[in-house]
């Protein structure tokens, strides 16, 4: 009798596995990168478990489905990947509304910023290209600060300096302070570009700094909040629509507001830990007091003014984002 029960259980398990649909989740980051390991992979495992055997979400990290960060969006559009970790700054013009998060001195941290970003989508303020996908998460990093090979304390210290920005708005902010803004350098090439002197530093935050080895080549940090980096987890909409209801329910359970809350909390926890690691390495970390912050904010204000003027409904989006951030805090 025990053999019969064992055989029946084995047959049921085999049948369940056969019914599970595999979803391919692409990340250009290496599998040990903080976000890919602690957020994306954990999400995939939770969704698979909650799907009651209908889904097997597999991570394809390290660019195994496509290495270029600017091609992740196309992987989802073409169905090469079912889901992908996407940095909108690598696809200028596609997710314009969400680039509001890049504006300097706006987003205080990933927790409030990520909650606000989902609120903006939920309220229909972020639309256009977002609605072409099943949106798993729309989140932001903690604010980017200055990481450089030489000490920088005032806006004029960047005058004429080649400096990398991770998105169009951040590049505009760099131009506003007189730097030579350098775009097109992906995270994978960033440390090498700094080491070779192609740029003297970058706008970044601790998580990206460690993932892409910036903290190994730049030892000077100025903690001015010069704009966050918007980030997305997108799913091919047709693929989602074709899934059984249990699979959809599992995805929905861990997406949207739940994803934003989880992402922001985990991201900000790492910001504290990563900064401590930088302090232990005797990195030069310069805080900005109220007077210095006012000088930096005034210096980069043209980037905010230009974004509002050049973005359709720019003032409305900016005001809504400030209100969403205030509510999130």
TrEMBL record:
Q: Does the keyword rRNA-binding apply?
A: no
| InterPro entries cross-referenced by the UniProt entry | DctP_fam, TRAP_DctP_sf
**Subcellular location field:** Periplasm
Cellular component terms, GO, for this chain's entry? periplasmic space
Q: Where is the signal peptide?
A: 1-20
Q: Keyword annotations for this protein?
A: Periplasm, Signal
Gene3D superfamilies reported for this sequence:
Bacterial extracellular solute-binding protein, family 7
Classification via PANTHER family: BLL6794 PROTEIN (PTHR33376:SF15), PTHR33376
Q: Name one GO biological process term.
A: transmembrane transport
This protein's name: TRAP transporter substrate-binding protein
């Amino acid at each position: 009798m025990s053999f019969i029960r064992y055989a029946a259980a084995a047959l049921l398990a085999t049948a369940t596995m056969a019914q599970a649909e595999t979803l391919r989740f692409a990340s250009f980051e290496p599998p040990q990168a903080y976000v890919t390991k602690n957020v994306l992979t954990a999400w995939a495992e939770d969704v698979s478990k909650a799907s009651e055997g209908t889904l097997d979400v597999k991570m394809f990290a390290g660019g195994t489905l496509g290495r270029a960060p600017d091609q992740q969006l196309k992987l989802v559009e073409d169905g090469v990947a079912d889901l992908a970790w996407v940095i909108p700054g690598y696809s200028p013009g596609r997710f314009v509304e969400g680039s509001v998060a890049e504006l300097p001195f706006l987003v205080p941290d990933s927790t409030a910023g990520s909650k606000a970003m989902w609120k903006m989508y939920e309220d229909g303020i972020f639309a256009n290209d977002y609605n072409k996908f099943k949106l798993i998460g729309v989140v932001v990093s903690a604010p980017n600060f200055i990481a450089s090979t030489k000490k920088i304390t005032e806006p004029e210290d960047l005058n004429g300096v080649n400096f990398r920005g991770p998105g169009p708005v951040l590049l505009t902010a760099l131009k506003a302070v007189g730097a030579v803004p350098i775009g097109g350098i992906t995270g994978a090439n960033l440390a090498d570009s700094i080491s070779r002197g192609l740029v003297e530093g970058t706008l970044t935050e601790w998580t990206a700094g460690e993932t892409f080895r910036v903290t190994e080549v730049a030892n000077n940090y100025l903690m001015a909040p010069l704009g966050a980096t918007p980030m997305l987890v997108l799913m091919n909409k047709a693929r989602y629509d074709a899934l059984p209801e249990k699979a959809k329910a599992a995805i929905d359970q861990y997406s949207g507001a739940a994803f934003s809350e989880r992402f922001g909390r985990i991201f900000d926890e790492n910001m504290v830990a990563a900064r401590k690691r930088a302090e232990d390495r005797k990195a030069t970390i310069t805080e900005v007091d109220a007077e210095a912050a006012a000088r930096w904010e005034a210096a980069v204000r043209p980037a905010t003014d230009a974004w509002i003027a050049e973005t359709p409904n720019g003032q409305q989006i900016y005001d809504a984002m400030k209100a969403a951030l205030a509510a999130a805090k």
